[in-house]
Design goal:
280 residues; alpha/beta; 2 domains; three-stranded antiparallel β-sheet; 19% strand; globular; binds pantoate
């Protein structure tokens, strides 16, 4: 399995693959591959002839107080996981390969990026949309695979490809959870044992909220219920608990499902996010 670090290498490999009439699937990641990524890669392996995983800790999506420096980097281990899962190509560029020093073009996706996480992480989704556009231009995949754990990211990318007519099909894959419900994330490895024990309260809170919505609670009532459950856990600090329209991320137009319940909370310095969509 080749590991390419240069854009022109990837382009020439993909050109050859396409010449054979094979389809190309891309799983964009920042590395530190875990079970959530494995599920995306397995899904891609089932669907596409040629599977590419990109591994790039993208500086433009981290704010000044985010964890860019300490974000786990483990290319050798990741390459072994990718190989095991039957990936055909790893694309692991340097920051210099991806961004020239005078790079000044960004992709901005409007209102969707101002809600939820976007309200607390200015510039984050601009960085995500920009790097994902670049990856699409480099790899030109038929399909790209994203996890529903990053619900807002998924929505932003779906909107971007629609608005900019990008010829890529987005495949959304369900959140993978630990046995106690904690959504699997590369950031879970920062948690102390005590924080790790406290963290499943986030999913429990979402489940309580979802149950309340199904039982007729309003969005505001569900939000309050989710918030109260998390605030009850001393090792978690709630950033937001919102119940919104799953398509627009705005206040729901009417009572009842569909509703997206979304949470961000800190365990120490580690920011954890999770969500549940209560379907109609
Ligand atoms: O979800 C992620 O890991 C990143 O935001 C992504 C999509 C790879 C872009 O850097």
């Amino acid at each position: 399995m080749p590991i390419a670090s240069r854009i022109d290498e990837v382009r020439s490999i993909v050109r050859r693959v396409r010449g054979n009439g094979d389809s190309v699937g891309l799983v964009p990641t920042m590395g530190a591959l875990h079970e959530g990524h494995s599920a995306l890669l397995r899904r891609a392996r089932q669907t596409d002839d040629f599977v590419v995983v990109s591994i790039f800790v993208n500086p433009t999506q981290f704010g000044p107080s985010d964890d860019f420096e300490k974000y786990p980097r483990q290319l050798e281990k990741d390459a072994a996981v990718a190989e095991e899962l039957g990936v055909d190509l790893v694309f692991a560029p340097t920051a210099e390969e991806m961004y020239s020093p005078d790079s000044c073009t960004y992709v901005e996706v409007g209102e969707l990026t101002e809600e939820l996480c976007g309200a607390f992480r200015p510039g984050h989704f601009r960085g995500v949309a920009t790097v994902v556009s670049k990856l699409f231009n480099i790899v030109s995949p038929d399909r790209a695979y994203f996890g529903q754990k990053d619900y807002q990211q998924l929505l932003v990318i779906e909107r971007m490809i629609r608005d900019l007519d990008m010829p890529v099909e987005i495949v959304a894959c369900p959140t993978v959870r630990e046995a106690d419900g904690l959504a699997i994330s590369s950031r879970n490895e920062y948690l102390t044992p005590e924080q790790r024990s406290a963290a499943p309260a986030i999913y429990q809170a979402l489940q309580k909220g979802a149950e309340a919505v199904r039982g007729g609670a309003s969005a505001k009532e569900a939000e309050a219920m989710v918030a109260a459950h998390i605030e009850n856990e001393p090792l978690l600090e709630l950033q937001y608990a919102r119940a919104v329209d799953p398509h627009t991320l705005a206040e729901p137009g009417s009572a009842g499902p569909p509703i997206l319940l979304a949470v961000a909370a800190f365990a120490g310095d580690t920011r954890l996010i999770d969500n549940i969509v209560v379907e109609e």
